[in-house]
Amino acid sequence: MKKISLTCVECPLGCDITVELDGERVVSVAGNTCPRGEKYAKAEVVCPKRVLTTTVRLENGKMLPVKTNQPIEKSLTFNAMQRVSKVTVASPIKIGDVIVKDLYEGIDLVACANSD
Amino acid sequence: MFDVAVIGGGVIGGLILRELSAYDIKICLLEKESDVAMGQSKANSGIVHAGFDAKPDSLKAKFNVLGNRLMPQITKELGVKYKNNGSLVLAFSQEEMKTLEELKSRGEENGVEGLEIISQEELIKKEPNVSKKAIGALYAPTGGIVCPYELTLASIGNAMDNGAELFTKFDVCEIKKDVDFIITAEDGRQITAKAVINCAGYGSQKIANFIGDFSFTVGGRKGEYILLDRQSGGFASHTLFCTPTKKGKGILVSPTVDGNILLGPTAEEVDFDDRTTTSNGLQSVISKANEMCQGVPHHTAITSFAGVRAYSDRHDFIIEESKVQKGFFNCAGIESPGLTSAPAIAKHVAGELIGKTLNLKKKENFNPIRKPDYFFSELSVEEKNEIIKKDPAYGRIICRCEQITEGEIIRALTENPRATDIDGVKRRTRAGMGRCQGGFCQPYVAEIIARVNGTDIETVTKNGKGSELLVGKTK
Amino acid sequence: MKNYDIVIIGGGPAGLAAAVSAYDNGVKSILILERDECLGGILNQCIHNGFGLTRFKESMTGPEYAYKFIEEVQKRGIEVSLNTTVLSLTKDKVVTAINSQEGVTLIKAKAVILAMGCRERSRGALNVAGARVAGIYSAGTAQKYVNVKGYLPGKDVVILGSGDIGLIMARRMTLEGAKVHAVCEIMPHSSGLKRNIVQCLNDFDIPLYLSHTITRIDGDKRVTGVEISAVDSDKKPIKGSEKYIKCDTVLFSVGLIPENELSKEAGIRLSPKTKGAEVYQNRETDVSGIFACGNVLQVHDLVDFVSEESELAGKSASEYVLNGEAEKNAINCIAGANLSYVLPQRIDKNAGGSVTLFFRTSGVFKNCKITVQDGQKTLLEIKKRVAVPGEMERVNLTEDKIKSIVGELTVGLEEGV
Question: Hey, which CATH number is domain C327-417, 1.10.10, 1.10.20, 3.30.70, 2.60.40?
Fold first, then answer.
């Protein structure tokens, strides 16, 4: 049996959560105030994921904010940054446009703003 | 080939250059930094002293009183902010009151007008925030304030408009006398001149040594300052000094011409050009200011800085032709009241000293006025709109805190002497000098610098090579 | 002179929400003055996510959050003047503004909404000793360079202050290839949100030094290193605790100050605690017809609450325009034990409706109790497991309770209950 302490990041409350693990299996989750906390804690101890937010360069030299439309595995963060850094896009871009389709399987890089 | 080369782009060199530019001769200014007004002329108290401090018959006494009288006219011609706000020397004991009497009679001997010892009651009427422990003061109505780097920049700009040449990054490493002087810079550039004026401040000993003149040594005294936001500008209206004691002059509390309050300086002997602030130094400024005044609004501090004041072992100004080399003139050890004295020193050096060496003839087309002689933010709505109509850049505010427009920044980058970096723009326009200290405007100023110079923002520096703002593109 | 019913100073999240709300409450003559070249304010450079969780139940980036409101403003055809800086504001609600197209213009408003946001405290405000060289930035300036301009301000970074922007920039600089060596916080606790500590520092193994400060910055032309020291309970550096870190960049994230220079000029009374205007529950200042909302009023942790507050200010401004000035029956609302401030500072009993009180605690408290008292009489008690200065708290007072108040309202916090 292993106990892992973590801070929930689902909302600003930041609950201190304790997860009991038996191998890969979650035995109990305590300290959370809402179901989102439980879900977060379970995922966090097994395979932590984060939405990556960054920028890509537009052809006119300006920057366009982008994000992954779903959380990616935390361990892929720098790999993703490297891949995104090679991307240049042409205007016009609308907010929500897919910038890179299937950056990772089923996960796209999307625009967070209009390009103009 | 120049008639005169001035070494050192501080307020002394700057005003001498400007005086010389009125004559029909070829002149230049050699400055080792990437911009002028980079030494003690950019970091001092900015006080136009009345002239009661210096010992009678000293050069300090002579030039202080003369310089004080010249300041209103010269600042008007150059479009530099100057204010005759009067000064007060505070006394906290009967012994100090006695010292004030001595200062008063010394001042009168020096020719200072209107000196008056005032009572505690009168003092508090003039300055309500002064400590109640102050029992009286010496009031000097001729005391004033001026911005030292603005005066330097404007005088050099005016001289350049009248034909003077400026060489920046000209770090003198050798001076040889053949028929004329041959001055060599670190980077190999050479300039020849019939006469040389050494106004190199902290570096003036080194420069004199190049021609074999070892008649004086120069030391450095570091002064740390704290600047308060303009919202505290009403805290003091006169320049407030402590009574000088054996321990030294103490610090001052003074308004600046831009409406801030300045506290400082400390006085610490240094053996190199050390411009760093220290926590002890800043703490001592705070506690000394608290002894002089009550309720000092320290929480409105927007920046702190330090400058090194050069002084000579003669403890008076050195303004003379070198005994070793004819045609080589030293203006060294110009410590306080050097800024006040500068206009008078410049007239003396240009007229008396250079006049005896070279045949000087006044230029017919010399223009003593530096344009434009207004500050955009101080204009009326109609005047502003007139300017914006001609140049829309004046309608775009870049620095929010000081309300500085793009037009003013472009002007600083294109008029004499041209700014080339962030600090240069700041000293010329005040962009970045306000309460946010450039937090908002620096990226915009950097873009404008890059655009005007046709370069990339990556090459823009804070103050010359090695101080680039950015290390590269993100991707 | 131009005339508008409502002039809103600032087109960031506060100004946008106030404009939409004022419009929807019946006033159509509205002008938003924005100094930047686009709407959205500081959200445009906040490309990280976590915005909108409370309001939209989803995690959005700053530009996405801003866009929701920009769209609403555009849909309503609300007039916007971009690249326009307000030079001054008077008590009679005359706004002087400047831009390149029209020059300096005077605008008379029936009501004014202050939505200028805040600025970062600079290094100078802290008197941090050392060299004045390149490589010293406020976190927000670095954010602008990285996210909007696309440039990296440095490669080896030390951050002073654990404010949210500093934490966000620790991650952002790391992602862009810089090495963040340390985040120093002079307080014994972080001033940023917990999720930012986890996701911005812990995720990247960036050390957080609590009760530490930078005691010296070294460098000739550019920063070459900093000396950091532990501090005692009076925040004074402890001799002997110095540690040297080589770096080329120092970021300051040491607090935000509401940008109230215009408000001061207009003679609006400011709170020494919040550094924003003192307001009634409808966000009206002590100058009739001038309202304030968002970070210019109180520095918020979450933009969601900025929007909420600004909608209230927008509604109140429209009521003021449509119904005229209302006679008030004001009581004071005071921050009691262990609170640094309470907002609103005054409650108008005539206004009707319930009132939400916002406040921050002056320290970290566990198992504590928030009390709202009318003189000696307790109106409300709320137990809290934890309360920290970094997170704004709120309590709601019902209309009945407001009506019952006879004296002054005091909000306080009791420890150990």
Answer: 2.60.40
